[in-house]
Amino acid sequence: MQAEDALNASLTGIFDQAIEQGRVVGAVCAVAHQGKLSHISAHGFADREKQRPMLPTTGFRLSSVTKPIVTLAALRLVAAGILELDAPVTQWLPDFTPTGPQGEAVSITLHQLLTHTSGLGYGFNQDSDGPYLSAGISDGLDHVDFDLAENLRRLSSVPLLFRPGESWAYSLGMDVMGAVIEKATGKSLPQAVAELVAMPLGMSHSGFVTAGLDNIAVAYANSEQGAVIIGENEKVPLPEGIGGSVRFSPSRVADSQAYPSGGAGMYGCAPDILSFLEALRTGAGLLPASLQSAIYQAHCGPEAECAGPGWGFGYGGAVLVDPQATKTPQSPGTLSWGGVYGHNWFIDRHNDLTVVLMTNTAYEGMCGLLTLEVRDAVYAALNAGYIPAA
């Protein structure tokens, strides 16, 4: 059996079983090794009810896969001398002045926004009567009738979870960074991201507002009855131990009036995301060596358990510090993250390996068994010599 066939057979079996068991409705998986596309495959349905098959080019709501893209845009502005990582947010957003936990005055830096050490949080990580929900703050995934400036006003009105730099909490910091990028460039976030990231990398099927939903996968969520369609502004409980509930608006991606969320607002397809992640792996001439290296530095150590035991946080994703703590075959320095609509990705620079898994099913495709099965199958193939080198 040829190397490509062995990997294809292994992954096909994994996806067939996940679909048969109702864990996912559809998925696309892409693998690059040493700069070469080693595998791409589509499985199941983009739209189960209309029997529309999943294709490698099917579009997905990216949710938090947006974050590393906007992070790269911000780092390119740092490289150009337009932004400074240690600069206070108020240099660009003078009215964004949330207080510390005790009401004290504090200063948040751009570095802290990028690394989720600002003291900001997410509403979906709070109880139903939590301060973010009480203030009507959007997580950038739901449909609301106000703009980004109003959302940041509301966010600024709530005290921080901790003093900036003193801890780690997944947060709306990237939405704040999106507003900083707009102020610094004088352009809308979609335009800035297109010019700084998407266009240089040929990401022609990615953006913030799609013309229609015909090529976007229908959004599903896991339930005791199998995968069910996610309704408008429907709250879907996160897996136990991860958080509260995410309020989704699947139509948001086609709404030109929805504000551009720097943390969750983009759409894209697997080939585009693989190209982007490969650029993060190699640098692609977009960043100087110092900033490229900083992406993979654990600015927060493994004590933060950003993606479980052994994981710290870099720029754009979690950084693996201790593989033994999490029992993963991935190498130290691996960068990884996902998205609540059902996505998971990682970059293992030691093995010149990039893997992207995109599904239309929350939350199996983000943190379910499928993510581990795909990861382990790829490494088994790599170790057996079944992933061809360039």
From TrEMBL:
Q: Tell me which Gene3D superfamilies the record gives.
A: DD-peptidase/beta-lactamase superfamily
Which residue range or ranges hold the Beta-lactamase-related domain? 13-364
GO terms (molecular function) for this protein are: hydrolase activity
| Swiss-Prot/TrEMBL keywords | Hydrolase
| Keyword Cell wall biogenesis/degradation in record | no
Matching entries from InterPro entries are given as: Beta-lactam-related (IPR001466), Beta-lactam/transpept-like (IPR012338), Diverse_Enzym_Activities (IPR050789)
What is the name listed in the Swiss-Prot or TrEMBL entry for this protein? Answer: Serine hydrolase
The organism is Mangrovibacter phragmitis
